[in-house]
Amino acid sequence: MLKIINLHARVEDKEILRGLDLEIRAGEVHAIMGPNGSGKSTLAGVLAGKPLYEVTQGEVLYNGKNLLEMDPEERAREGIFLAFQYPVEIPGVSNTYFLRAALNAIRKARGEEELDPVAFLQLVRSKMRILHMDEELLKRPVNEGFSGGEKKRNEIFQMAVLEPMLCILDETDSGLDIDALRTVADGVNALRSPERGFLVITHYQRLLNYIVPDFVHILYDGRIVKSGGKELALELEEKGYGWIEREARQTVGASAAGA
Amino acid sequence: MTTPTTTIEQLASREYKEGFYTDVEMETVPKGLNEDIIRLISAKKKEPDWLLEWRLKAYRHWLTMEEPRWWPNLTIGPIDYQDIIYYAAPKPRKALGSLDELDPEVRRTFEKLGISLEEQKRLAGVAVDAVFDSVSVATTFKEELARHGIIFCAFSEAVRDHPDLVRKYLGSVVPYNDNFFAALNSAVFSDGSFCYIPKGVRCPMELSTYFRINARETGQFERTLIICEEDAYVSYLEGCTAPMRDEHQLHAAVVELIAVGRNSHIKYSTVQNWYPGDKEGRGGIYNFVTKRGVCRGEGSKISWTQVETGSAITWKYPSVILQGDNSVGEFYSVALTKNRQQADTGTKMIHLGRNTRSTIVSKGISAGQGQNTYRGLVKIMKGAANSRNYSQCDSLLIGNRCGAHTFPYIEVRNSTSQVEHEASTSRIGEDQIFYCKQRGLSTEDAVNLIVNGFCKQVFLNLPMEFAVEAQKLLGVSLEGSVG
Prior knowledge:
The complex is a heterodimer of chains A (259) and B (483).
Chain A: E1 2-11, E2 14-24, E3 29-33, H1 40-48, E4 53-62, E5 65-66, H2 72-77, E6 80-83, E7 90-94, H3 95-109, H4 117-131, H5 136-139, E8 141-142, H6 148-162, E9 166-170, H7 178-191, E10 197-202, H8 206-210, E11 215-220, E12 223-228, H9 231-239, H10 241-258
Parallel strand pairs in A: 3-10, 3-11, 6-9, 9-10
Antiparallel strand pairs in A: 1-2, 1-4, 4-5, 7-8, 11-12
Helix pairs in contact in A: 4-6, 6-7
Chain B: H1 4-11, E1 26-28, H2 35-44, H3 49-64, E2 88-90, H4 104-112, E3 126-132, E4 135-139, H5 142-147, E5 151-154, H6 155-161, H7 163-169, H8 180-188, E6 193-197, E7 206-212, E8 223-228, E9 233-241, E10 248-251, E11 254-259, E12 265-272, E13 284-295, E14 301-308, E15 313-316, E16 319-322, E17 328-337, E18 342-345, E19 348-351, E20 357-366, E21 371-380, E22 388-397, E23 403-412, E24 418-427, H9 430-438, H10 443-459, H11 464-478
């Protein structure tokens, strides 16, 4: 469903992604790990269409379409969802209102009927149970006054309601205590299905105990330098990123010698 | 590719849908201002002598006054008061007795603006007084309201049919010599609305006035007077639009509210959408208005809610004098300035009685090169023991060429009083827009959502139908070519 080929992207003059390749098929969960500054959040931002990033080279195909030509809202309507690392506050706009506007914008784009408030509330209630959300949270303005954990849970809740096809989680585990982590993971696992793909970006192996990935990729210096199964995450946890750095340097050295 | 900032700024410009002109046969007085013109206006309205005298007194006083020294943050071109037509009215086909005799063009004008003058087609629960240039052309539901003892009619009609009430209250809150524009209005005022709610009556429908400026080179100088007796309640709404023209037109109104009796309650809402001028600042209405209410009765309440999206320059400070003990004053305001619009608006809350309370919530939105100023005064006098005020002034900036200013003045002469003031300034963040877009909303919807969220506290105070209107208006005001 998603194919990234030789992707280069930069912020202002700084090149961050330097030739990234990745393919995600429907039903798969891919985890991306990597040290700070390796380009994890940039990858998430580029896929969602964040204006800050400029793609300088490469392509991204989403269900065969050129993703990079699409506006962020088009991507969302085509089923791409980004759970933000730092969810944004929108004062005065209730969570329910926001989410219904979003859902109806997506439904409209798909040629489906808009949901009326009653049908919407039913949908929302069923999703709230999965994430143990307090109904009070629905009435509150989007993310305003939410704790860190509540914000992250709210992201996954939105994801559950919008039912996207490709879910990108950008460090959703950061700042979560173990209980919140479990709740969030339950929410994600409930959404796993043969039609849906996941890109889980994380710093720590911990989250992957709960969301078990099919593939783990290690991002270093703007490229994927190593891929493997879920055991790669454990290996990384044990050996630390220093191991990857050394390996990466060797690979670069070897290819330089070979040239 | 456009940057997000320019996209947001483009959103701030749109066509002004109400900018059409209606070609009707008009009856006007010659340009300029002198005692003869005032006598002519008064004669056209067949006014009693006392009112003519009052007008002349105001005019003579006005001659001694200087045009206000504008606040340094307002830029305003010179106004030639001799180059304005002070009275313009559609020529009546016959005597204007019933709606059927109304010029169909005038009727169509209001219909185009979404104001139907046929009672059965009206939103249930809203009575309308329609003012076209200098005259009221129709008032709906008069008979039904009369059954409750409520008087709702054109000002000139009130002068004819209820002279004692008019004489008693006219100028009692805004005296003819109050300020330059109030004096000018007192001299030349044409029509406006008059409402009287008798003791113990809760007005069963919203009363509203729709003001339309149509004729070229005219000014509109209406006067509204609302009187509420003991235990009476009224909710009054006003809306206003004007054609698009390259020249500025002057609108200098006076509104007086009198909450006379115990527990009387007046709720006054405005959605102001006068022509704002074009992108370069050509044309648009100069909206210089004096609005003031007095809470005389114990426990009485006056509440101003305004949504100001139009006019080249808005200069108004709807105020409340809290005279009765335990009386309450409120001011809720949303002011939007875009392109080259300027707004200098706020309120004055004057606390005289004991245990008086006032609340001020002001939301300023600036886009394009708009300049938005909140200017307010909270004055607590010696006798106003245990009085309280809460003020909140928030500004939202869209783009990086606009401005927001806040000038709160506070004078407290009583140590048992409490005054609170909060203020904030924020910018619509690109991160907020991106967040909304990532959830499937268009940039336009995202901006509307964020702006409406910002204004929510004020919209909650508008009557239902009006809140929807206001939200839409704010929506279209920010609408534009995206991408």
